[in-house]
Amino acid sequence: MRLASLVRLISLLLLVAFIAMPQAFAFAFEPLVTPGAPAIYNQGSLFSLTLQHLRTVCLATIASTILAVSLGIFVTRPSGGEFLPLSRSLVNIGQTFPPIAVLAIAVPLVGFGEKPTFIALFLYGLLPIFENTLTGLTQVPTQAMEAARGMGMNTWQRLSQVELPLAFPVILAGIRLSVIISLGTATIGSTVAAKGLGEVIIAGLQSNNIAFVLQGGLVVALLAVLIHDGLGLIERAAARKLGRFVDEVS
After folding, report:
1. Coil, strand or helix at 130
2. Among 172, 177, 179, which residue's Cα sits nearest to residue 220?
3. pLDDT digits over 102-151, tens only?
4. What is the pTM of this model?
5. Cα 73 to Cα 80: distance, rounded to the nearest angstrom
């Protein structure tokens, strides 16, 4: 466990150092480029592009979470159960159409830049969060709900104080999956002039510079691994608390 934590810490420090001072790592990429070609991406700030990449992913994930969790709550209520098939059809739209197709449709409507990328990531991230919300809410222990009713909690109190906290680890697992998918998918946003790490990869492909492609890919990969592990730690901590709560109720 300590070794894994040490590896994560070293990876985080290397990532921060690279995006903040990329020229310090030029020696590692020079063997990959032809003489005279730049070894480090020089058409923009890696730090700025990383922040913009994360911003787009974060905004899209927040929007997906709000809609998917709201739909999940609605269809697990007695009054909303009949809308479950329709809700599933809606959240499946993002998985039905490839992100590049969504970009092609969105560009004529909202123009180039971050907006079409946001739409693609938003739609693509709905399904895992929605399905995990359904799973989490429907698997809330019966004894916990009975205890809440016995304490005199109303419907809203049971949802906010019992159901959602108990379903949180499962919902977070869906959010984690959505974030990881979005981190990789967001790179294609650069094809429609969205700022992000895809810009580095595309520049490398256009100039036949393997170093650029590797730099963009490595930063995205490290971000995905570190965020995945970070959210996983939160998820496991929440699951342990859930286990203790269920034991107390039982």
Report:
1. helix
2. 179
3. 888 888 888 888 889 999 999 989 999 999 999 999 888 888 888 888 88
4. 0.88
5. 9
